[in-house]
Specification:
single chain; alpha+beta; five-stranded antiparallel sheet; 5 strands; rod-shaped
Length: 280
């Protein structure tokens, strides 16, 4: 009868490896993806803040916010819109000349509370317009003799492509983690099968044969000096001692039979000997 195992060692180890590798790879992947995303956002924020910083340093004039090539050299190809707005909400300079002179709050893509917030300090905010995503920054660029700001810069870049690239990177990361988990798990299962499971099954089969009364069973020479090799050596020693013990028992039983036969012959011949003595 073949030994029956309720749980497979290889399957158990495989599930354990899959769980550990999946957790580790996904954790590391998530960490690096978040770190990469934070770096991308940090660079986008820096590029948005650069025009207003250059105006504050005197390297730029507010007219630059109406010059696309100039802003592209600073902000980058993601530039979508830019303008300079007065404190009372009038657009003074814009990439789109048709907006000059119009009121800030006439455009649906801006929020009414942005100018009051910019009075305190510059800020950035994410914006969704239709299917596209944007990052906008509003910052004061001029003030009247140290009083409240009177001019504000508005710069908007499109982040849709960046978000799509991050989503693609995330999918690749997940796919790579799954592929790495599958490949390493298969490799480990093969290693476990040849180095552990197959050798343990041989030991289990040999134990089953000994249990059935076949004491001539042997696991052969030990090639690896590991735990299973030690187990095989111990099993071979045990069966060898069992064979020696049974051989000694057979020899003792055979000697006992020979002695018994001699005793019977002696007893049978004893009557004749007695009769001869009596006749004499």
């Amino acid at each position: 009868m073949k030994p029956h195992f309720r749980f497979s060692l290889a399957l158990t180890l495989g599930c354990l490896v899959v769980a550990i590798e999946g957790a580790v790879l996904l954790s590391l992947g998530s960490f690096y993806l978040q770190h990469f995303t934070a770096e991308v956002n940090k660079r986008l924020e820096a590029s948005l803040a650069e025009p207003s910083a250059l105006v504050a340093q005197g390297a730029f004039s507010t007219d630059a916010f109406g010059q696309r090539d100039t802003l592209l050299s600073v902000v980058g190809p993601a530039l979508d819109d830019a303008m300079v707005v007065s404190a009372d909400g009038v657009i003074l300079v814009a990439l789109d000349p048709s907006r000059v002179g119009q009121r800030w709050n006439e455009f649906p893509e801006v929020k009414a509370d942005w100018l009051p917030r910019a009075m305190l300090s510059g800020f950035s905010e994410r914006l969704k317009i239709g299917a596209n995503s944007y990052l906008v920054r509003l910052a004061p660029v001029a003030s009247a003799s140290g009083e409240a700001p009177i001019l504000f810069s508005y710069v908007r870049i499109r982040t849709t492509e960046n978000e799509q690239e991050l989503a693609t990177l995330q999918l690749r990361l997940i796919g790579g983690s799954i592929a790495a988990t599958v490949i390493t798990t298969i490799a480990l299962l093969f290693g476990v099968h040849f180095l552990v499971t197959r050798r343990l099954r041989r030991v289990a089969d040999a134990v089953e044969q000994v249990t059935a009364g076949n004491y001539l069973t042997s696991l052969g020479p030990v090639h690896l000096s590991d735990e299973i090799g030690f187990l095989k050596a111990g099993f071979n020693t045990m069966t060898e001692r069992l064979r020696q013990g049974f051989e000694e028992l057979r020899n003792a039983f055979r000697d006992l039979e020979i002695a018994e036969q001699k005793y019977r012959v002696l007893v049978e011949n004893a009557d004749e000997a007695i009769a001869v003595v009596q006749d004499g």
